[in-house]
Amino acid sequence: MKHTKQMKNIFFILTLTLSKFIASAQELPLKKDAVFQDGEVLSYKLKYGFITAAEATIKVLNSDLKFDNKPTYKLTVDAETSGTFDVFYKVRDHYDSYIDKTDLLPYFYQENIREGSYKRQDKARFTQDAKKVVSNRGTFTTPTTQTFDLVSAYYFARSLDITKLKTGDKFKLNYFLGDEISALEIEYIGKETVKSKLGNIRCLKFSPSIKPGRIFKKDSRLYLWVTDDGNRVPVKAQVEILVGAVTMELKSASGLKYALAKE
């Protein structure tokens, strides 16, 4: 039970990392057009050593809902444990985020968490111009007019213009989670080819900051590889823990706007 709870926590951390691998738009402006499109579906698996512990599916849907009279995309994430982990500690988490089709900023976010016997439902409404987030846990003031939730940050970051990025550059992204607003610092490491089930893919490598504790070693580093193409799809994330290592890998991708950067 102890290990399954740790795996669930790591799965959440890596999923969160996929959603916020780089900077704010003030420093790195958005591309002219979003790198994703309606119908994109990405599937990931989380491995502890050679064992698949959990899986996640991320989708882009065209939404009929409008916020401030503006059209939106509906982004969804479904995460669940698998195999023996599912027997001892079942996780069924679902996340939705509605984002503006032009500037990709979030309007509304909700999550339905089911982890073992624990259940929780949270909702949040973003008002970027007023620098405010109103959720069922309270009202929060944001430091900028670009604050994200777990899911929207992932898609916003993918559409940033990073053509001027240099090795060693560091950036921060503001995000709302639970009952607080935080910032994540990310360092660009360089380019690297990653072997995956989809082939050998040219990637950009990043290292998001993590805090050592009950799961991570004092000198642990989290690495994230993102396709070096028009899609900017996270292909792999890896981090060392107190015992072994945990890896998240892209299992399948469909509905992509551009071809993958395969060698």
Topology summary:
Layout: H1 2-18, E1 41-48, E2 51-67, E3 70-81, H2 83-88, E4 92-100, E5 106-115, E6 118-127, E7 132-135, E8 138-141, H3 152-158, E9 170-177, E10 180-196, E11 199-208, E12 222-227, E13 234-240, E14 245-254
Antiparallel strand pairs: 1-2, 1-14, 2-3, 3-4, 4-5, 5-6, 6-7, 7-8, 9-10, 10-11, 11-12, 12-13, 13-14
Strand order of the largest sheet: 8-7-6-5-4-3-2-1-14-13-12-11-10-9
Intertermini distance? 42 Å
- Low-pLDDT stretches are 1-11, 17-27
In terms of DSSP E residues, the strand content is over 45%
Q: Give the class-level CATH name.
A: Mainly Beta
Using the coordinates shown, work out and report the CATH topology: YmcC-like fold
- Helix content percent band: 10-25%
Give the total of beta strands: 14
Output mean pLDDT.
Answer: 84
- Based on Cα principal axes, name the global outline: globular
Helical region count?
3
The secondary-structure class comes to mainly beta
Largest beta-sheet characterization: 14 strands, antiparallel
Number of domains: 1
Question: What CATH architecture do you see?
Answer: Beta Barrel
> H/E series, N to C?
HEEEHEEEEEHEEEEEE
